[in-house]
Amino acid sequence: MNGGLSDKTVMIAAAGCDAGRCLADACAQAGARVVVLEQTASRARAVARAWPDRIETLGLNALRPDHCDRLGAVWDATPLDLLLHLQPLRMPRRPGAAISAIPALSRALLPGLAAGAGRVIAVFRAPGPGARAEGLAYDAAMCALAGHMQEEFGNRAMVNALRLAPEGAECSCGARLWPAVAMLTAGERAGPCGSVLHLGPE
Known about the structure:
Blueprint: E1 9-13, H1 18-29, E2 33-38, H2 41-48, E3 55-59, H3 65-75, E4 82-85, H4 87-90, H5 95-108, H6 110-115, E5 119-125, H7 133-153, E6 158-164, H8 173-184, E7 195-198
Parallel strand pairs: 1-2, 1-4, 2-3, 4-5, 5-6, 6-7
Helix pairs in contact: 1-8, 3-5, 5-7
């Protein structure tokens, strides 16, 4: 059992993808209470199926700032130890919405993050060879986002991004992500923050 997440609360935004299912299972197996956010109930239930006693589902569009604000108002200062953003993987064709939603949801949950271990991790994939200008611009913006969020949030949260290699099937990226997530959550309010960790090919 991973001591870093045992008895902790983890929230996974846009969890209805293979990476979300893999990470939800791994966090639950590590002893965490997991809350998965997904727009459709069927996708949310699919994520929770393996660990129904540890994974809770919440129907919410993690790309809509108004949904994020409503969740924050309800969650308030309930301790939140880890917030995983998978919007760029779940909705790769909506880069503008994803890059706006990540800080919006984190900001809405900031009282809970400050009360808990306060780790925020955004996950995205690097553009492939021959990517167009908009893809390169989105990659640059995602690389800069963690640092800007860290500056805004100060010591209330620790923000990082995980940048996956451009190649490889999405179904394997959850397994590739889990060691990095486990490493970042191994300590209490310690470790790197405001930075991007580049992960090699799956």
